[in-house]
Structure prediction request, 396 residues.
Amino acid sequence: MRRAALLALLALAACRGEAPRHSQDAELDHLVDSLAPLVEQATGLKFKRLPRAAMVTRAQARAYIVHNLEREQGNGRGAHLARSYQLLGLVPDSVDLGQVMLAVLGEQVAGYYDPDSGAFFGVEGATPQVLRLTVGHELVHALQHDYLPLDSILRDLSNADRAAAAHAVLEGQATLAMFRMTPEIGDQVFDQAFWDLARASAAGQMGAMPQLAAAPRILREAVVAPYFSGAEYMRWWITSHPDAGPPYGDRLPRSTEEILSAGRLAAGDRPWEVTLPGSYGPTFSDVIGALGMRVLLAEARGRDSLPDPAVLGWGGDRFALYATPDGEALVWVAVFDTPLARDRAHGALADWPRPRAAYRREVTSLDVSGRPGLRLVVGPEPWSGWRALPGATASQ
Prediction:
């Protein structure tokens, strides 16, 4: 469902400043039938079945977004994730992350494919051009569902970084195909110059999506990266593996580092699984990943630009949120490819996150199963865990 938020912005980027061409509204089923062959041509896959299609109101679309968010962020997961980001300095304490996510995802939504029902839903009020682009994009997701357990992939909550990497492949393939089906773009999607222009155009049109523009950067990147970085990954995959078919199944990337730096897995740079052993269990634990660490380091350095993924040196990470009588404590451990990459991160985080009342912080270099590692801890002053901070292990 996250994909619904950016399609209007992508449509503006596709226009590259030109006025949209208006046409008579067509029946949604007819639009689906007419675009299906173009989707097959752009992806190299054949539909096993076409999804049924129906129009819904904006209120119905919003209810669908709310339902999906409750399923993804329920049982306290959303609150724990928000608190973890707050302690890491990625989200202000005053921000209700759940409400921000709802506002961003519901902004200018034009349509969505629902894996549960196997149907595409167009949203009333979308312009003909945006609706056409949306149908093309979402039909790719319907096609993916013919070859992948799409619902299971989208709801895998065991490792946020691995899920984000798979999500980027799904959105990247759909975005690449959507642009490729646009007559004035076509195979320009395989040129780097096109993506440079598309990114610049989308950034210039951000004012058209004020909720996204005002969101914390960690959320903006989570929404935007699957489209652009995912599409550039798919561009690399298609040109590097012309006869291999899509990177589905065991070939799905396992980390966002692979999305940001294509070819790392082929070069033997596999992500490490970091484990935080301890005598007491956390209330919540997950992985920030290379994408999240780029944002964390940029925020810590006070920079608008994100670190170059080629020199980021991310090897794996895990954070854990602990409940204490005086407030939550957070421990984050990351491993790096080289001591230099670890030392750069250590320097950036030396004074991060910013101090908060009655809390202390500590950043330490440490050995993690023979790998250069880093541990960042933020917790209440009286927390007993300060006397026995957890170490970590890493394995592939």
Summary: The mean pLDDT is 90. Strands lie at 52-56, 111-114, 119-123, 273-275, 284-286, 314-322, 329-336, 359-368, 371-380, 393-395.
